[in-house]
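WARN retry 2 of 3 for item q-0093 after timeout on previous attempt; input resubmitted unchanged.
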Amino acid sequence: MFPRMRCARPLLIAFLIAQPAIVAAAVSAPYRAEATMTVAPGVVHDRGTMTTSTSGRQAVYIARVDMSQPVIRFEASISNDRIVGLEPATSQANRKNGEGHRAVLAINADVFDSNQAPFGLHVQDGELIAYGARPRPTFGITADRKLLMENAGVIGSACRVDGICMPVARLNQGRTMVKAPASW
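OK item q-0093 returned
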C-alpha cells in the first residue's frame, strides 16, 4: 500500500534530489528494502528504511520504472490545477484517472514557498508553469523518454515594445522586494 501524501505540490515532474556527497556523509545505515510490490507492468514499488546521522530512521519509497514499456507515461499536475494551494498527491492522481487511463504511482515532487506556490521548476503539458530564482535539483523526461536529473533553472526577461528589457527571476512564485528602475 502506498503511503498517503499530504500537502502535495507538482506531481511527477520535479523532485528534490540531494547532492550525493552530502547524503552519503549523513547515512549511518544504508537503505534496506522491507517490501516490494509490482503495481503495473513495468512499475515496481519498494518500501524500506535507512538511517541518517542527522535525522535517524527514515522511511524510503522507491519506484522502479521500465521506460521501455510504451504504455507508461509520466504526467505532471499541480494542486487543484492552480499555482497556489495544497492538495494531496493521491487527489491529484485521482483527477487524472479516466477510462483506460489510470495513475499507478504518485510522487510528491516539490516543496512550496510561504504562499503555497511551487518553489522549483515545473513544466506541464510542455508549458513552463513555474520556476524559482536559482537552479534546483530537477527530474524530467524528454520526448524520447530519456531521464534527466540535473540542477535546472530558467533565464528569462520581459521586454517592452520599445526594446527595454528586465530580467525575470521567477515565474508564478512570490515576489521579492526588488525596486524596479525608474525607466520601467
